[in-house]
Design brief:
heterodimer; A: mainly alpha; elongated; B: Alpha-Beta Plaits; 2 domains; 3-stranded antiparallel beta sheet
């Protein structure tokens, strides 16, 4: 379980070290892509904890969500409607839900572990 | 489920996410630098910038001056080239007076041949003149003037009512002087020798005319063609035109 966290840290360090900057006008797309990636990541963690993890779903969902979010933002820019807000909203809500589910699962695990320790 | 595999893909995607986050973070992070200079420092900076500006302006001005100088030079040279070409073409067409090496040929009546009672020949037939001219041209004569009348490419020599005319100029009285110009003394000498031994002398003699060819002369003056050249059937070539 520690490996993904390590990966996240490694990615951040790599990104900071390379000092890549994207142009201001594209930062919208990247931000929404980051949001989508976060959503997928937490969704994956939740599924893993619930033991319904499917790698294909996870990987395809990751890339598909990112692309969908980016194209939604693109469409929004060209239509003059802030469509990326829709993506932000959807991903934000799902992010909160996923984190809540993860918290509950972890809580129940913790409490059962505690009970086990108390029993023994 | 293969746990290792799950971890691998999760890790890869986590790296990707981390990378994206870092880039986004860096993009959003703006340089935070407060301007803490006081009025005097600001004034100094302004002064420096103004100096730089004035330097740049003077540089621009000098460059522009240079540019205009080059431009005017270029224009002048163009004009000069055009003038030169025009002069050259005029010279070739026979519109300028030429002074240079050459020979003179005298045509005079043969006094010994004059018979009592017979009319004196005082007309050079156009055929003879044409033959002479052709011969001269064959021997690389460049500029020819017959009796002070310059001959050019379109010159006509013909008989009108018993008078030989060159482009409307009547050859009246003998002797007639023909001036022939060439490029240099060497060819003048050659031309003189060739004319001395040519058949033209004999041909003239049969018409009771004597041809006296002078030796090479370093400076003879050949007048310009004084009529306007009429061009009827010539047209400039269209640029890039096929036929």
């Amino acid at each position: 379980m520690w490996l993904p966290v390590m990966g996240l840290v490694i990615g951040i360090i790599l990104g900071l070290l390379t000092e890549i900057r994207i142009p201001e006008e594209y930062s919208n797309y990247l931000s929404i892509a980051v949001l989508a990636a976060f959503d997928t990541l937490f969704g994956g963690i939740r599924a893993y904890l619930q033991n319904i993890y499917d790698e294909k779903v996870f990987v395809s969902g990751f890339f598909f969500n990112i692309m969908l979010a980016a194209s939604l933002a693109f469409l929004g820019v060209h239509l003059g409607v802030d469509l990326y807000l829709a993506a932000v909203f959807a991903f934000g809500v799902r992010l909160f839900q996923n984190i809540a589910v993860i918290r509950r699962i972890l809580l129940t695990k913790w409490t059962t572990n505690k009970e086990k320790i108390e029993k023994s | 489920m293969d746990k290792k595999k799950i971890n691998l893909s999760l890790t890869l995607i986590a790296i990707l996410v981390g990378f994206m986050i870092a880039i986004q973070f860096q993009t959003m992070k703006k340089p935070v630098e407060r301007d803490t200079r006081d009025v005097w420092q600001l004034r100094e900076a302004l002064l420096q910038e103004k100096e730089l500006q004035s330097n740049l302006l003077s540089e621009i001005r000098s460059n522009e001056e240079k540019l205009s100088a080059y431009e005017s030079k270029r224009k002048q040279s163009k004009e000069q080239a055009l003038k030169d070409t025009l002069q050259e073409l005029k010279m070739e067409a026979g519109l300028t007076e030429i002074s240079g090496p050459g020979i003179t040929i005298q045509i005079e009546p043969v006094m010994e041949d004059v018979q009592l009672g017979a009319p004196l020949t005082n007309v050079v037939s156009p055929e003879l003149l044409k033959r002479l001219l052709n011969e001269l041209n064959m021997y690389e004569a460049k500029y020819v003037a017959i009796d002070g009348q310059r001959t050019i490419n379109t010159t006509v020599i013909r008989d009108i009512n018993g008078e030989t005319k060159i482009d409307g100029h009547t050859l009246k009285s003998l002797p007639i002087e023909i001036k022939v110009g060439v490029d240099d003394m060497k060819s003048a000498e050659k031309l003189s020798n060739q004319m001395k031994v040519s058949k033209a002398g004999d041909e003239f003699f049969t018409e009771s005319l004597r041809l006296t060819v002078s030796g090479p002369n370093p400076t003879i003056i050949i007048p310009a063609y004084d009529h306007s050249i009429r061009i009827k059937y010539m047209e400039p070539i269209k640029e890039g035109g096929g036929s």
